[in-house]
Amino acid sequence: MHSPNVIPQRMGHQAFMDIKLGQMLSLSYNRHKTILLPAPYDTNCQTYDVTGVETAHKLRADCLSSCAYNMWFRCRNCTTYSRILWRLDSLPGERNPNICKFGEHYFSDSGIVELPGPYYFDDYCQRLCPVDCVQNYYSVAVVDREPGRSAWFMSGTGRVYIGLTHNQLPDQVTQHVEEMTFIDLLANIGGILGLWVGWSVLSVLTMFKGNK
């Protein structure tokens, strides 16, 4: 389960669930939303424009795909199947790119045999493409609802019933904020200057009284 404007990356077998025919499943989910800060902060995120007007890539997935595509073509003038090549229509060049006919080969930027090509490019592109500033993660709980009844009700139909509901718990939102904004900085400087001026006035008055 993922955000509608985000294509999931690096999905393994643990991201999928086996469902048998005749099951009646009840799924409840919660959303965990995280709002990050762009550079120069450590989170170094980027807000992608899904219209493709404000940013070069509509999604981070497009940036990853384009990066891997260019890396493969630079090394072998072909591309290979990868977990980060999801949308071929977003890639530069031909709509039907030349797929490499060999298996897991080893490349590096200097051409030295080091790491498996797809995984090396994957890690390289993950660092090159900033993450989206708004991250949505979903936790899903799956319950096989009344397995005895579902076997009787759905047997022989070749169907699966899935009910999706929001968990009773509220969604969680975590927002990263600046430790000190520009206005806070000015306020602190103003407070320090005001304190300094106040002490200066007291010192001058004390000096005049001493001279008298």
Automatic annotation (TrEMBL):
GO CC term, one of those recorded: plasma membrane
Organism, scientific name: Oppiella nova
Protein's name according to its UniProt entry: Uncharacterized protein
Positions of transmembrane segments: 185-208
Record's subcellular location: Membrane
Any one GO molecular function term: ligand-gated sodium channel activity
Superkingdom in the source lineage: Eukaryota
UniProt keyword list: Ion channel, Ion transport, Membrane, Sodium, Sodium channel, Sodium transport, Transmembrane, Transmembrane helix, Transport
InterPro entries (alphabetical): ENaC
Membrane topology: Multi-pass membrane protein
Similarity field: Belongs to the amiloride-sensitive sodium channel (TC 1.A.6) family.
